[in-house]
Amino acid sequence: MNLAIVGCGYIAELYGKTLANYPELNLVGAYDNDATKLGLFCSHWSSRRYADIDELLADGAVDLVLNLTNPRSHYEVTRCCIEAGKHVYSEKPLAMDAVRARELVDLARQKGVYLACAPCSMLAETAQTVWKALRENSIGKVRLVYANFDDGMIAPKLSPWLWRNGTGVAWPAKDEFEVGCTYEHAGYILTWLAAFFGPAVKMTSYAACLIQDKGIAVDSMAPDFTVGCIEYSAGVVARVTCGLVAPKDKSLTVIGDGGILTVSHLRNDVCPVYVRSIPPSRLALAVERRINRLRSVLRIVEPDWHIWRRYPMARRPPRVLVGADKPVDFCRGPAEMADAIRHKRPCRLSAELGWHITELIERLQYPERFAGRPEIASGFDPIQPLPLEQ
After folding, report:
1. Which residues in the chain land under pLDDT 50?
2. Is 54 part of any domain?
3. What is the pTM of this model?
4. 66 found inside a domain
5. From CA 341, how far away is CA 97, in angstroms rounded?
6. Is residue 130 part of a domain?
7. Closest CA to 200 of 378, 346, 354
8. In what order do the strands lie in the sheet with 252-256?
9. CATH number, domain at 188?
10. How many domains does the chain have?
11. Count of beta carbons in the 10 Å neighbourhood of residue 302
12. From residue 192, how far is each of 257, 265, 266, 279 by CA, in Å?
């Protein structure tokens, strides 16, 4: 399937690096309103430079458009592509609010095109392994989830506006701070929970900007800390946090009647998944007590040590990941969408899912917009796990 990219900023390189995993995806060309970024990307990835978006959309060879623009441009660019009859895979979120996300869902349905939205990490080996463990009842009935996406206090002291990707494009610090870390990152957590537990039904949330001055001038500063308690129809409650203040923590912990499941880094596509029973076996309990007594004598202040069992990975990892510091495959999403189009089946990263995640993100970051409206309006059909590999 032929695809073209709109938006050659910081993240475009991450897609370019993992495109090699999917020979069925053919990069035709790209467009960006910044000629320098466009030139860097097209030179590096040997693709056509479109003069403007109209030229890209007029190219009959382009089947699928990857919208990799900044979040505040997602709605306009995606709407333009859909109206031109192109399938669209958008970076997260689908739009900046649930109303506009719903409009895109309806428009794609009217035009008879596919619309999908990042993130695609729920298709990765780690998420699929967690999902398999839950389906196999490895920790009993799930009661509670703790999910964190704290990136640490990256600003102002770490000067993230000086960061560059491999092609020399700067990390968009101003845009990130104005849009907010929740809009940028909560989707990684929320799509996993959507796959595991279905649509959310209620949410209670809190948001605040705790560091007003992050070191560069901005037009407005979005919240840099959000926390929400989300209820799912199966009786599961998830506490979700996002922030740029607390120490880096991108962990997931799922608590069931019979045990606990944990992932230390949910942005690592191949992160190990561990489970332990509640209560542990007598032998395990004895070992844990002795080690924790020793830790107490040594004044080790970290939480108590426990014996964990590594859960077998459900799938083999792809050949190429972005890098050792970012073991992620960004092109899983476009490949899933292309396969769905080819086989005329529902896409696991559906437009309806994108709308639902947008509503949850908006509720997390702007709880005041939903005062007195606890019920969640959006929903989606059940998501099917990927086939297990033998």
Report:
1. none
2. no
3. 0.94
4. no
5. 27
6. yes
7. 378
8. 200-208, 225-232, 237-243, 142-150, 252-256, 259-263, 273-277, 309-310
9. 3.30.360.10
10. 1
11. 6
12. 20, 13, 9, 27
